[in-house]
Amino acid sequence: MKTAKRAKDRRSVIIERHEFKPQEECGIFGMACKESRDIAQDIYFGLYALQHRGQESAGIAVQYECRKVSYSKKMGLVSEVFPQRRLSEFPSARTGVGHVRYSTTGSSNVANAQPVVFYGRYGRTAVAHNGNIVNCDRIKSRMIKNGHIFQCSIDSEVIAALINQYSEESLEAGVKKACGEIVGAFSILIMADDKLIALRDPLGLKPLCMGKLNDDIIFSSESCAIDALGGTEIRDIMPGEIVTVEKDLTVRSTMLDGVIKRRSCIFEYVYLARSDSRIDGVNVYDARYECGRMLASLCKIDADAVAGVPDSAIVSARGYSEVSGIPYTDALSKNRYIGRTFIQPSQSMRENSVKVKLNAIKANIMGKRLILIDDSIVRGTTSRKIVQLLRDNGAAEVHMVIASPVVAFPCFFGVDMESKDKLIGGHQGSDAICKAIGADSLHYMPMELMVKACGGQKSDFCTACFDGDYPLDLSDYNLDKFVLEL
User: Among 142-151, 191-200, 312-321, where is mean pLDDT lowest?
Assistant: First the structure.
């Protein structure tokens, strides 16, 4: 009995959910339709396609007759929050917005779920936001002193209140004035006054694109959600752009004031986005595949097989295999069916269900010298467990090849990378990291090659998590709230 248990342990490894990979904060999705219909169903499928961007809560709000708003939000996966019975309770509507969230700021509870819905100058209003506002506490404190009341701890509510405060002339004027005050990363959808407004911060740090489904207009964090509905992507929302869709589906575009320069998050291409998405005109799959091809030319390793850590590194591994001529194999299998922790009835069950199991495919790696491609090493704990798992299941050698540079700096714009001292690359060199994770060798992708693979120049991207080159001056802000205590 004990022998059988030990054998099973060598085939699999338990990894806490929070240590597996950095998480994006959230994804947003919105639609404006020519006629009232069952729009909540389409928003559901859009959010389902964006589930990888947030797994803690989900919400949908729709605007129907006389500018009324029906909404629902709850902790859990999209399929858990919106069973068919709940979806059927939404009224027919012309416009709607949806949101999936993973908390990086604000605690993990239903009060912080989105969209934020409130009654303002233009009646019932819903706001969905992706990103982090670094001067949020300062704005919130000022507004509280002036008599504003807040019900949750997320910066999205502060954005909503600020827009409403400045919307005396028009909703768009309020958006423009509010965005002149906030500092940070944001892609936002606003539903009010028979309009749907989409906007992106002046640096384009967070992705947002526009598409069509027949005559209907769609906005989404990633193009994969537009594809999931059978729609067609039109274009990306430009950095600093405000797009307004009127009741008759007339589309107007204006720009925020000030300097506007694209610095989109390069970690979207490395890991966060789905591989079948397109961001700022770049196919994510192609970028990852090209990373693998470049790494094969750069890192020539004598090995028997190439494998990728599921899911995002598999594409790079296939690119490496093509150029190197070393056969690709599946070395690891990831359990994709772990549900949310809050639905479990006991504490012990909740603790167990926040774990993700990786299984080694023993027959594919036994006795082989293995090149293992991963997209990044953040804390190092996951890489160490994976390397040991592969060795326990018979791999003769494990050479780690990373399709990005060393992650050495925290992110303050909506990705849950911790403080510098908790990032293994923040205080150790590659040789020390290699020893810490137990690999036979460790190779990173140079910055210039990663940028080239992503179809641009370094000045087109935020690369701060790799080199500390933050696109905004953060010296004047309290950043403690962005450090997770895990």
Answer: 142-151
